[in-house]
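Deliverable D5.2: sample structural annotation.
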Amino acid sequence: MDDKSNVCDTYRRKNAIVSSEEDTDNFTGKRINYLYKSHRNFDLDQTESGKYRDSICEGDAPIYPLNPSRDHEDPQPEDDSEDRCQKSPTECRCNALLYVFGGYIVGLLMVLIWYYRNPQEACKDLNRKWIFIVLLALLLIILVRRRAARCIAVLCLSSCSSNLFRIVVIALAFLVAFSGPVKNIIHNTCILANTLTCEQNVLIQALMLMQRIINDPSHSVEEAFKTTLGEVSRLMNKLDKLLLNLERPIAHIHAIFKTCTDWLFLQKDHYDYKMGTPYNRCLKAGNLSIAHCKSEFGEGQKECCKLKLFLWFCDSLKTYKSFFNDNIQWSQMVIRDIFQRLQLCFIKIRFIFITTISFDHSLKFNSTDPFPSNKDHINVQDVKEELEAQRYKIHLVNLWLNLIIFILLIIIIYQSVCFWFRYLSNDNYENFYITEAFEDYDDQYHQIMGLRALPLSNCEDNRYVKISSMRLLSKEFDTFYRSAIFLVITGIQLFCICFVDYSLYSMLTLMSYHGHMIEDVKPPAYTKIVINCGGKIGDMLRDLVQAFEPKTCKMNTQRCLPTPGYPKYLRYVWILLLYLLAWFLVFWEPYGLRQRHCVMTYFYPEESRRRSHDLHDIILKNRKSLFKARCEEARLLNSFESTHEFESFATWLNSRLNWYGLTLYLNRFKQNLQCRCLSCCTVSFIGRCCTLCNKPLNKCDNVPCTWPSCRGIYCKMCFQESNNKCVLCCPEIDDELLEPENSSGNSEADFCSIDNKDPQPRDKIT
C-alpha cells in the first residue's frame, strides 16, 4: 500500500505542475477528451476485480487498475465551486484570442483605408508579398496563443516523412523536369522538325527536274529551248544597245547633212527670188560689165562694150534654172543611200536573233508545270504553329502540377489535424507503440500487481514495437514496399526524360557537325567552252555559249542544319537531389511518422500516459487470445497452402528485415555475449520462417515438426508456448491451449523450456 500511495502522490505532483496554457487547452478539449475517458474504469471495487479475475486463468495474479474511475451515468461531471472560480480566468484567456483577432482585423482595415486614400502607395505596396506578410502574422498570432495550433504545426513538420509529402517531392521533381528537360526536348523537337522540313523542300527542288525529265521529256526540252532563247534574248539586248550606240553618231551626221542641204535649198530659193534665173543673172552681170567698161574707157569700140559677146556667153545658161540643182541632188542621193544601207544592216542583225519556237504537245503527263506546285512544299510556318499548340499543352500540364502540389500540401495539413483529433478522441488509434511511459507504468504495475507486459512474445512482436526501435511492423514494411515500387517507376520516368533530352541534343549536335563538314552539292564535271578577252565580240560570244550551257543548280544544305538547345544540367542535379530525398523519405517514413506520437506526448503528456495505460491493459488481456488466433491462422494457411513453402517471399523478407534490424540494434547498444551470438545467427538463416510468429529461423533456433507430411517449423519460444507440440498436426492442442496452467499470464511462462530442460528467458528488447 505504501508503494501505491507513493505512485499516486507522484501522479498528483505531476498533474499539479500545469501551465495556464495547458488549462486553456484542456478546457477547450474537455468534450473531446471525455469521449475516451468514459470508456476507462479506475474503480478498484470488488465487482470490477471479479471481472478481471474471470478474464484470466486461475493461478494468476488479478489485474487491478491503478486509478479510481468516474461514474458512467454522469457523462459530464459537474465542477465544484473551486473549479468554477478557476474557470473564469481561463475563459478570459480563451476570449483574449478573439480580442487579439479583432484588434488585428481593425488595424488591417485601418491600413487598407489609408491605402484607399493613397492609391499611388497602394499600387506600390499592395502585392503578393504584402498578403504573405499579413497571413504569416495571422498564423504567428494563432501559434503564440494556441497550443493546439503549435501542436498541429509540429505535426505538419513530422508529416513531411509521409507518403503525401513524398508525392509532393516527386511532383516537384516532375515540375523541374517539365521546366527544364521536357521544355528543351520540345524546343529541340521543333528544331528537328524545321530541319527535316527544310531538307525535304531542298530534296523536292533537287529531284523535281529529274522527275519532270522522266515523266514528260518534251516539257524538259521546251524549258531548255526557252532557257536558251532567254539567254539569246539577253544577248540581243546587249547587241541592240551596241547598235544603238553606232546609230546615234550616224544619225547625227545625217542630221547635219540634212541641215546643210536645207540651208543650200534656202539659199537657192533666195537667189532665185532675188536675182532670177542663171541666164538673167548672167545678162545682168554683162550689162553691169558693159556699163563699167564704158565708164572706164568711154563709149569707144572696145571689146568689153560689145553686147553680143555677153549674149553668146549667157546663151548656154538658158537651160539651167539654178546653179544648185545637180550638186545638191547628187550629194543628197549619196547620203541617203549610205544611211539606208546602214539601217538595213542593223535590221538584218536584229532579225538574226529574232526567233519563235512553238511546241505542240499531244500527251499530258502529271508533272507539266514549269515549277513545283505549292502543295509539294511543306510550309514551315504550319509546322511551327502545330508545335506551338503542343507547347501550350505543356504549360497546362505545368499548371496542373502546381495545383496538385498545392492540394497535396493542404491534404498534409488536413491529415495532421485529423491525426491530432483522432489521437485525442480515440484510444485505439495507432496505439501500438511502446513508449517510456509504457515501460514506467509496466514497472509500477509489476511492483503493485506482480504482472508484466514486457518483454513481448514473438507473436506480439508482430503487432507492437518500441517507438525508438529500428524494427518495422508488417504494415510499415508494406508501406515501404509500395513506396519503393512507386519510386522505381517514377525514377525510370525521370531518367527517360533526362536521357531523351540529352540524346536528342547529342543527335542534333552530331547532325550539325557532320553537316558543316560536308560541302554543298555541286554539278558533275563536263566539257566547257571558255572564251577569254575579245572585247564586245568576246562578251557576245561568251553570252551565246552561256545560253547553251547545261542547266544545273547548287543546293545550299548548310542553311538547313540544326542549332540545338543546350541541356540544363543544373536541372538534372535538382531532379537527382529530389529523387534521392524521396528515397530518403521512404526509409525514414515509418520512423518519421512515429515522431508524431512523440510530439503528442510533448504537448499532451497526460493523454499519452493514459494511452500507454490502455495499451498495457490491452496487451495483458489479449495475450492468450492473440496466441490462439495465431494458431488458428496458421492452421487455415496450412489448409489452403498449395506449395511446400509456407510463407511467401515478401512475408519472409519482411520478417528477416525486421529481425535483422533488431540484431543491429542489439549489436550497437548491447555489447554482451548473447548479442554477439545473435549476430552470428544473422548469417546462418535457413530460409524459412516460424509458423506462428513469422520470425526468420536460423540453425540455432528452429524446431521442425517430426511428422513426415507436416510443414510446421517453429522458433523455440513459440514451441514452448504451444506446450512443445505442433499446432498444425496435433489434435490435442486446442484443449491444452484452454487449460489454466498454459496461460501466458503466469509468471513461470517467462521461463518456458523445450522438454523442460533448457530454459529460454524472454528478455528481448522491442
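Annotation notes: The radius of gyration is 60 Å. Residues 217-275 form the longest helix (59 residues).
The annotation will be released with the project's public dataset once the embargo ends.
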